[in-house]
Design brief:
The protein is about 70% helix and about 5% strand. The chain is mainly alpha-helical.
Length: about 180
């Protein structure tokens, strides 16, 4: 197994970052929906702390993934894949990154504008309360989550379609 990506397969660094972010997102999304319905109290505070910690973790992982993608280019798609498919695959990946960053950044800003303190990159940050901005960032946070769910469905569906209809085993490259 390679540490870095090859022309045909992802390396261990890319694989670990991919699956770690996928697992955390599969926890985060339902946790966030569960959190919305909780009454304020100790349980909500505990769940929210977990949600924030996982959200910041995903934020850091995505930043590391983006740096890794610059330093460690992804494997090439099969030459039989037409340009439209390449474009759609690239757009889906770009939109996944943008959406995850929008979710995490809007979540951070929502918390900060609610007057809460967050530790980001080993530094405690607190800013002046602005509940109107906090509400706007919360709306962005929610909308971005729905977009992310759609993008994940497209991502997984594309892998299945490639396997069933084109005989491409894309999942093998990332396992």
């Amino acid at each position: 197994m390679h540490v870095t990506n090859t022309v045909t397969e992802y390396g261990i660094i890319s694989k670990v970052l991919h699956w770690l972010s996928a697992i955390i997102l599969l926890i985060q999304i339902p946790l966030g929906f569960y959190l919305v319905d909780l009454d304020f109290g100790d349980q909500r505070i505990t769940i929210e702390d977990i949600h924030v910690t996982l959200g910041l973790t995903v934020f850091y992982i995505i930043i590391i993934r983006l740096i890794n993608n610059i330093l460690n280019p992804t494997p090439k798609l099969d030459p039989s894949i037409f340009k439209g498919q390449r474009f759609l695959a690239k757009m889906n990946h770009v939109l996944l990154y943008i959406t995850i960053l929008a979710i995490t950044i809007s979540g951070i800003l929502k918390k900060l504008f609610n007057g809460e303190t967050l530790t980001i990159i080993f530094r405690e940050i607190q800013i002046n309360e602005n509940f109107d901005l906090a509400d706007q960032f919360y709306e962005i946070h929610i909308l971005s989550n729905y977009i992310l769910i759609g993008l994940i469905v497209i991502h997984i569906t594309a892998v299945i379609i490639h396997k069933l209809f084109f005989g491409d085993n894309l999942i093998k490259k990332i396992l």
